[in-house]
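To the team - adenosine-5'-triphosphate complex, inputs and output below.
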Amino acid sequence: MTAMVKAEGVHKSFGPAHILKGIDLEVAPREVFCLIGPSGSGKSTFLRCINHLEQINAGRLYVDGDLVGYRQKGDKLYELKDSEVALKRRDIGMVFQRFNLFPHMTALENVMEAPIQVKGEAKAVARARAERLLDRVGLSDKAKNYPSQLSGGQQQRVAIARALAMEPKLMLFDEPTSALDPELVGDVLDVMRGLAEDGMTMIVVTHEMGFAREVGDALVFMDDGVVVESGHPRDVLTNPQHDRTKSFLSKVL
Ligand SMILES: Nc1ncnc2c1ncn2[C@@H]1O[C@H](COP(=O)(O)OP(=O)(O)OP(=O)(O)O)[C@@H](O)[C@H]1O
Ligand SMILES: [Mg+2]
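Output:
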């Protein structure tokens, strides 16, 4: 079975700062793969490399068997053109801590926008899907609201619906609940749990250890640009093997 994401010795530097120091990991199709680690350990950078928002300096990164950002000819790598990168990026949905909805568009229009603009989809088709997706994230009654008329949690659920509208085969979540008031976190996690149940492949950077434990199939603890420890969330969270993992978990659990 082809891994949905495969990283082999991935290195990333920003100038002299060596941020990712040889990341090896594999995410299977339909897996919920949780990524935890201290601030600055490189979690967001790694996610950004997966859809080639950042170039890697060494190693190989594959999504669904395809090299990310490059084409290999013999043993040489050629960077893809922007248009080719954009085409591949369509398959990957990304949800950030801050939702970045278009402020001048309603929830429904936000969800309709990309399929129309990027895929040239007919408006009626995009609308029907957007209505379905808003229903799925529990926001049918907010379709006509503008982002400023929605709570943070509702905006984040619109952002998830917007990412799903492109029918991605992989979803990347970068701390999707960490900017939310505590009482709004649950609804967003419920939507993510539903996605997981439907078989979506997801990489989730999170501080929600309860979610990781209940929904996650795999968990990686990253520190200082390396994978320190990985395994089933229950095992890593209840029985960490490395001192760095123990020390991190003692602060967040
Ligand atoms: N564009 C950039 N230019 C220079 N340095 C960067 C850039 N992006 C990230 N970094 C640095 O890379 C390191 C890792 O950052 P990253 O955002 O990946 O960490 P993180 O694990 O996501 O942290 P957090 O939990 O705070 O979100 C940090 O030291 C950061 O300052
Ligand atoms: Mg981050």
